[in-house]
Fold this sequence. Notes:
Keywords: Antibiotic resistance, Membrane, Transmembrane, Transmembrane helix
Protein name: ABC-2 type transport system permease protein
Radius of gyration: 19 Å
Organism: Micromonospora sediminicola
Structural class: mainly alpha
Mean pLDDT: 85
Order of helices and strands: HHHHHHHHHHHH
Shape: globular
Pfam families: ABC2_membrane (PF01061)
Number of domains: 1
Transmembrane segments: 21-38, 50-72, 84-110, 130-157, 169-188, 218-238
Amino acid sequence: MRAAATAVRLQLAVLRTSPGDLLALTTVPLLTAIFLAITRHAGRGDLAGYAVLAPAVMAILATAITTSGEIIEIDRRSGVLELLLASPTALAMVVSARVTTVTAVSLLAVGESWLVALALGTKVPIAHPLIFLATLSVTAMAMSGTAAVMAALFVLSRSARAYQNSLTYPLYLLGGALVPVALLPGWLRPLALPNFLAWATDLLRDSLDPDPVRTAPARLAVVLTLGVTGYAVGHLLVRRVAERLRRTGSAGWA
């Protein structure tokens, strides 16, 4: 726990001096304006909630994935990765703590998106705020777990940046960030079922609707289960990769 707390403090210090990990937040106003313009032009004001929610979800996910790659890339370049692998502290725990810190800060994207919509004359009420907040919290945790899985790939790669940007787009699609999974081609839908984001985005959208949210506890439990599974798989993969790098001594060049 002490190592995790230290990793959190380190990441907060990094954010103060180099806020580049939160670069995705700068895209939220533009994407919100674009998506709202599309719904207005199509005469679908009822889809305003979709247009406002999507940029926030995309920014949070992009932040988690990008941060996991940047942590590995910078630590490798500065020689810290080798020292961390030589220490008794688990690499997966350090990466997860740092990614979770940035992901928690990136939740500001939700408020940012809603404020931009309000400035553009669109008010999107949250009909079920408790369900919305609970889903958002569990989703952020699950995103950190997904980032831990990606970290295993980044540790093995010579350059994490070669993958971190492109990996987010399939997750946007299969996670229903803007378009619900139910509207995707039939052959794609089975691929979305194990994706926590597909369940989370549907639940977030339903929490904006005044109608009662059906089976909310069960759906929230699915997101939580998939998130915990992602964490477990991510920690296992990073631990195995770390053991391999210790044996081969190839952390500096993967």
